[in-house]
Write a structure and sequence with these properties.
The chain is of the alpha+beta class. Helix content is about 40%, strand content about 25%. The protein is built from 15 helices and 23 strands.
Length: about 475
């Protein structure tokens, strides 16, 4: 088999989602060249196309974080064991996943160092040094970094031993300010997911059984993947004064009294790349929302005769100039591949728009655009291209969101008892909305009988008005990643 034949087969041979969603996912990640397995078990190498996707996501989220007054900083990768051990619940929650450094060079360390699974401990220690007065508050810090959690079962992007993320850590004078911060950042995540990633999410609070170790309350955004499983896409934690008391983070208030600060933490990770893949992908591969796509439009030249090539190439130069600074554009002028092969490759990689330029298009002073989401074609005059293509990309962004929201609605059911939930999950997946009075026994029984966990209690209860009775809220259950 020639190299060209092998590459063609690599592009075309993709499992159907309905046959094996897990296999489809792994094939898409690797064939679209987003990531690959690293030599260390459970770790991944993020390839340039996948990292380009992450860079756009990171940029958009970072802009939102800074717009709310937060500043970026960086804290060490290694945490002394004595520091991590100060908070018992926190340690117990992460102990099975902590990786330890026991030797530096040829010398054994006097104290083990944890590779950070999260940074509350080291940041708490630093805040205890930096915060002295109410004038120092609030402290609003975010960091972009890597963390390590020694996961037993891993999957590229969704759950890996090492992953990239941002983690925000704030300190406030009052509980009310801390709670407001938690909900503000939850809303930042919700809007980012829906506006930039085109992923509809439910924002709500976690149950006591599902909250972050050491938190008073955890909130999350929950999305539904195309296989009917839920995915936690971001979390925001109200830490109260728990860590402040452990790490002695105090301030002198306006009356001269020493008070413990109120803290929050919140984070989102490269798991969001997996969410994008599983929310929007189809049997031909990725379908990337234009706002985060590394390449928003690919230009494919078409000619059959050598004498046609010069005219097509000259016209493409005009296309590039018309779109300069407006669209992330790639001209695929590789001679070793046919236009049809290029179509398959860029569909697999989820490029939102394909622009075909052949002799007939040149004669009409236009290009033929093809949408990745629905394959609709549109001839666009060169004179209008600079305005029309950005508008077309926004149409695709909205269409992907609406398609995902329609899928979620079609796969959301209601139930009133565990028995009804069990009947649902016997044949279907998706979200099940059920009245819940906060009973841990109900939650545990539902999980045992259905395999579904309580994903969140949505802050917006209006979609299920009338389902819950007095003293109850509607909770969403689903099988999840």
């Amino acid at each position: 088999m020639s190299d060209l034949d092998q590459r063609k087969q690599f592009v075309e041979d993709l499992s159907d989602q309905t046959d094996d969603f897990s296999r489809w996912y792994n094939e898409v990640v690797r064939k679209a060249q987003l990531a690959d397995y690293a030599p260390v078990r459970g770790c991944m190498v993020i390839r340039p196309y996948g990292y380009g996707l992450w860079e756009h996501m990171q940029r958009l989220l970072d802009e939102r974080i800074k717009a709310t007054g937060h500043q970026n900083a960086y804290f060490p990768l290694l945490i002394p064991e004595s520091l991590l051990q100060l908070e018992a619940d926190h340690v117990e929650g992460f102990a099975p996943q902590v990786a330890w450094v026991t030797q530096g060079g040829n010398d054994a360390l006097e104290e083990r160092l944890a590779i950070r699974p999260t940074s509350e401990a080291i940041i708490g220690r630093m805040y205890s040094r930096w915060i002295e007065s109410y004038r120092d508050l609030p402290v609003l810090i975010n960091q972009w970094c890597n963390v390590m959690r020694w996961e037993k079962v891993t999957r590229l992007f969704l759950r890996t031993a090492e992953f990239l993320w941002q983690e925000g850590h704030t300190a406030h004078a009052t509980a009310e300010e801390g709670k407001a911060e938690v909900l503000r950042m939850l809303e930042v995540y919700r809007d980012f997911a829906e506006t930039d990633l085109a992923i509809p999410v439910h924002a709500g609070r976690k149950s006591a059984a599902e909250k972050f170790a050491g938190a008073e309350m955890t909130y999350s955004i929950e999305a539904l993947m195309r296989d009917g499983k839920a995915l936690q896409a971001g979390t925001s934690h109200d830490l109260g004064q728990h860590f402040a008391k452990v790490f002695d983070i105090t301030f002198q208030d306006e009356q001269g009294k020493r008070q413990f600060v109120h803290q929050t933490s919140w984070g989102a990770s490269t798991r969001l790349i997996g969410a994008v893949i599983m929310t929007h992908g189809d049997d031909q591969g990725l379908r990337l929302p234009p706002r985060i796509a590394p390449v928003q439009a690919v230009v494919v030249p078409i000619w059959r005769k050598d004498e046609e090539r010069a005219a097509v190439t000259e016209f493409i130069a005009k296309v590039v100039e018309a779109l300069r600074g407006r669209v992330r554009l790639y001209v695929d002028d590789r001679d070793q591949y046919t236009p049809g092969w290029k179509y398959n490759e860029h569909e697999l990689r989820g490029v939102p728009v394909r622009i075909e330029v052949g002799p007939k298009d040149v004669a009409k002073a236009a290009v033929m655009s093809v949408r990745r989401d629905g394959r609709a074609k549109e001839s666009i005059p060169l004179a209008a291209l600079g305005e029309r293509l950005p508008a077309l990309l926004e149409e695709i962004q909205r269409a992907l969101f609406e398609s995902a929201r329609a899928f979620r609605e079609e796969n959301t059911a209601t139930a009133r008892t565990v028995a009804e939930m069990e009947a649902h999950f016997a044949t279907r997946r998706g979200f099940v909305a059920v009245p819940w009075d906060g009973s841990a026994a109900f939650e545990a029984e539902a999980k045992e009988r259905t395999g579904a966990t309580l994903r969140c209690v949505p802050l917006d209860q209006t979609p299920w008005a009338g389902l819950a009775g007095a003293g109850q809220d509607v909770a969403l259950f689903a099988r999840a990643y």
